[in-house]
Amino acid sequence: xxxxxxxxxxxxxxxxxxxxxxxxxxxxxxxxxxxxxxxxxxxxxxxxxxxxxxxxxxxxxxxxxxxxxxxxxxxxxxxxxxxxxxxxxxxxxxxxxxxxxxxxxxxxxxxxxxxxxxxxxxxxxxxxxxxxxxxxxxxxxxxxxxxxxxxxxxxxxxxxxxxxxxxxxxxxxxxxxxxxxxxx
Length: 184
What we know:
Blueprint: H1 3-13, H2 21-26, H3 28-44, H4 51-59, H5 64-79, H6 85-99, H7 105-125, H8 132-136, H9 140-149, H10 153-162, H11 166-178
């Protein structure tokens, strides 16, 4: 496969006809924007059958930073659509072999951590009460996200008392206070 054929295949598979393949191949910014559109279409599909192939194709791009960014966007979109942690765990297990093909360990690890973060988030939504040790194992990004979106008094109290950053602790304290909850 060549970059040209990969980009053409992704665009055609997503039904995106208004992107010039030659322009996308020549310019990583145009290609990145095209990948974001492909990811959006892919995530919107009811079927998850093509996701692994889409991830594999995107990750063949020689510009690993751009391809990693596109795959992270897909991970985020799928995580927000699944019915729970079991469904997301199964989906992510399908794409992880493709992620492992990235040459840059830091990019592989970033995607793995994002998946871990979403599994943590989804388990909380599913009723799991996290511990401070579990909270310490997720990224500052996920801690902040939870502080901004969680409606659980226990989660907000945990974040207010144990989050890694002052900003996240304050967000959790303020959100808890606005709901009339007490935090440490």
